[in-house]
Design brief:
The complex is a heterodimer.
Chain A: H1 2-35, H2 42-59, H3 64-85, H4 95-117, E1 132-135, E2 138-141, H5 142-164, H6 166-176, H7 178-183, H8 188-214, H9 224-234, H10 239-259, H11 264-279
Antiparallel strand pairs in A: 1-2
Chain B: E1 4-13, E2 16-26, E3 31-35, H1 42-49, E4 57-62, E5 65-66, H2 75-78, E6 80-82, H3 95-101, H4 111-116, H5 119-138, H6 154-167, E7 172-176, H7 184-199, E8 204-208, H8 212-218, E9 221-226, E10 229-234, H9 236-241, H10 243-250
Parallel strand pairs in B: 3-8, 3-9, 6-7, 7-8
Antiparallel strand pairs in B: 1-2, 1-4, 4-5, 9-10
The chains are: A mainly alpha, B alpha/beta.
């Protein structure tokens, strides 16, 4: 009985970590689907979102919810401008140039954050910090539960946005066929910038939800690699796949940390990534598109 | 003043004059056809009108409005729709979804109302669906309504693309080689659709076409191009008799 409870607890904590990977992976997938660019700075944008929230909540003393909302908005605006000023220029360039550019941007963001906010780990008080929920034999941190709940709400909103709103459908159309989208009256370029804004906003949500669990520091964007594994596991073009992939990576990581020798936890996401590439390269939800001739 | 007018438009790609001092005007309600050998600049003219390329010289005027410098995504709002030679549909979406996207320029813009699916949004969506159903009935696409584009034969996709253009409620329809990839029978059917679009819907049509049987069947006037310049303009019969046009197609002493 105690063992079952422990496993359940590990699974829930793993899912919470996995939700963060999933949210960052979602950012990868949104941008990739629309522009066929892989944004390796996604994890660092999450870090910037965390620092923005720190500034609004801890430094300026705002209410948590207001500060979080402003941080998400500010990061989204940042993502929008990133596309307008820089990334729009490399659309259609070879994939390698995009990879180098986004990796380089990641370095710049980390350095800038270090100069602006310092290299120490910092945290701000959230309504969920250091509180626990006891149910049966389970002891669950509210911070972890808030991550899962926050992710579910965000996914619901995004689902409605993409399936029902004019802008959301315009985004889907632009990712499927840019030329056709133009002649349906869709301003494809600014729609792409909006997608960057949404990706950055989602990353900021991840950073804010993660902060009570693991604090904010310049290198927190390193989980981008785990999120990348999650995106590949999900099929890289699939939005639900990104989330499911993230949760799988998170749970596997927690369980291996408990049952396997110390140190294995850190490499599990890479093991998952390699295993997917060998066993099921199209990912769990990947579509293999057959061309009719 | 004419309904649609291209005033000595020209475009250069490097040293090549792909379109050189071409002028034509199109009257309201007519089917105007652009013909010419490969590389004559027909599709380039379409791409100039639909603002994929910028003109180097000249002016484009539609319904009294100069749209020479308008961005491509605003062309649909102006009332100009187009189809493509190689079909540009949303391949992973159904026929219905493709047609509904055609309603984009007419859609409500209030994001919050749409997220909450307010009654106003619902009414607007029903209105759009009705318009789309009209087009489905008009082009007899009923049985393909929920089929994915990727699973449709080529000929049907061409009709779907035509339908999507009609869903934008255009005043002018640009058809880029409506017969390409179609067999003789399908081409004849395409001709009937174009006639219906002109007569029943009152839409002005500008088309690029190779198939002279289709041109003769539907066109009111024809413009023949070669090397980016106008060779002849007139009724299909006049243009086909024109010695310059015959020389361009069949060769001969320059």
């Amino acid at each position: 009985m105690q063992d079952a409870a422990r496993i359940l607890q590990l699974v829930i904590n793993g899912s919470a970590a996995g939700c963060i990977y999933g949210l960052v992976a979602l950012g990868f997938v949104l941008i990739y689907k629309a522009t066929e660019m892989v944004n390796f700075a996604q994890g660092d944008i999450m870090m910037l979102g965390g620092f923005a929230a720190y500034t609004f909540i801890a430094t300026l003393g705002m209410n948590y919810w207001l500060g979080a909302l402003l941080a998400i908005g500010a990061t989204a605006l940042f993502g929008y401008l990133l596309d307008v000023l820089i990334l729009r220029r490399v659309i259609g360039q070879p994939q390698f140039q995009v990879v180098m550019l986004t990796l380089g941007l990641g370095f710049i963001f980390r350095a800038a954050a270090g100069i602006g906010w310092g290299y120490d780990s910092i945290a701000f008080v959230t309504p969920f910090t250091n509180k626990v929920v006891r149910a049966g034999g389970l002891v669950l941190g509210q911070d972890n539960l808030s991550i899962i709940a926050g992710t579910l709400v965000l996914c619901g909103v995004l689902y409605v946005f993409f399936s029902r709103t004019r802008l959301g459908i315009a985004m889907q159309a632009s990712s499927q066929n840019q030329l056709a989208a133009y002649y349906m009256g869709i301003p494809v370029r600014s729609v792409f910038s909006m997608i960057w804004a949404i990706s950055a906003g989602v990353a900021a949500v991840a950073g804010i939800l993660l902060s009570p669990v693991s604090m904010i520091d310049v290198n927190m964007g390193g989980i981008g690699i785990k999120a990348f594994a999650a995106a590949v596991l999900g099929g890289f073009g699939s939005i639900p796949g990104a989330l499911v992939g993230g949760i799988i990576v998170g749970v596997v990581e927690q369980l291996s940390g408990y049952y396997l020798p110390p140190g294995t936890q850190d490499v599990t996401s890479n093991v998952v990534l390699l295993a997917v590439l060998v066993l099921r390269p199209q990912g769990l939800f990947g579509q293999t598109i057959r061309k009719r001739v | 003043m004419s309904y649609f007018e291209a005033k000595s438009i020209a475009v250069r790609f490097g040293g090549i004059r792909a379109v050189d001092d071409v002028s034509f005007d199109v009257n309201k309600g007519e089917v105007f056809c652009i013909i010419g050998p490969n590389g004559a600049g027909k599709t380039t003219i379409f791409n100039l009108i639909s603002r994929i390329y910028n003109v180097t010289d000249g002016k484009l005027v539609f319904d009294g409005q100069d749209f020479t410098k308008m961005p491509a995504h605003r062309i649909a709002g102006l009332g100009i729709a187009r189809t493509f030679q190689n079909i540009e549909l949303f391949a992973n979406a159904s026929v219905l979804q493709n047609l509904l996207i055609g309603r984009h320029t007419h859609a409500q813009a209030n994001l919050l109302a749409q997220l909450c699916f307010l009654p106003s949004t619902r009414r607007a969506e029903i209105g759009h669906r009705e318009k789309v159903e009209d087009v489905i009935d008009f082009l007899e696409l009923q049985r393909y309504r929920d089929t994915l584009i990727a699973n449709l034969p080529y000929g049907v996709r061409k009709i779907v693309e035509l339908g999507r253009a009609l869903c934008t409620e255009p005043k002018i329809l640009l058809l880029d080689e409506p017969s390409s990839g179609l067999n003789a029978e399908e081409t004849e059917v395409m001709g009937f659709w174009i006639e219906d679009i002109q007569k029943d819907l009152g839409i002005t049509v500008i088309m690029v076409e190779h198939d002279m049987s289709l041109v003769t069947a539907v066109a009111n006037r024809v413009m023949a191009l070669n090397y980016g310049k106008v060779l002849a303009m007139g009724t299909p019969a006049e243009v086909q008799r024109d010695p310059e046009v015959i020389r361009a197609y069949l060769g001969g002493d320059p």
